[in-house]
Recover the amino acids of this structure.
């Protein structure tokens, strides 16, 4: 796995909570990130995009049980690691708790944020690879 990650030249392992095995799983399931036009499409694919469950004047979101469950599991593991250790992820989680969200809601919000970070990292790496290949 280390050799495959070295060949992919990915910076994913620099993110807190994202080690060799998790980065390899992520890259294996995502494949070419160009197939996702936006981070919203990527979040929907990973199952981290909340689904609207609003009715009338009640504005709510519910858990998305769709998407790639293996990728959702990977993002869950990263989120739990970031919540456990001091850093940006823990700060974001605690801020959501202070806003009145339940721990599960705060964890889901962190997973969505992590999905965006992973997407932007993969897009940046792809752009860099295309410019160096030209």
């Amino acid at each position: 796995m280390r050799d495959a990650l070295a060949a992919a030249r990915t910076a994913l392992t620099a993110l807190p909570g994202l080690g060799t095995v998790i980065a390899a799983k992520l890259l294996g399931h995502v494949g070419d990130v160009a197939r996702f036009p936006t981070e919203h499409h990527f979040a929907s694919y990973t199952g981290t995009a909340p689904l609207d469950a609003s009715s009338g004047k009640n504005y709510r979101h519910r858990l998305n049980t769709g998407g790639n469950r293996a990728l959702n599991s990977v993002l869950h593991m990263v989120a739990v690691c970031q919540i456990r250790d001091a850093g940006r992820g823990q700060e974001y989680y605690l801020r959501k708790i202070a806003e009145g969200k339940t721990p599960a809601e705060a964890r889901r919000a962190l997973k969505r944020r992590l999905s965006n970070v992973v997407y932007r990292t993969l897009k940046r790496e792809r752009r860099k690879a295309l410019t160096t290949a030209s």
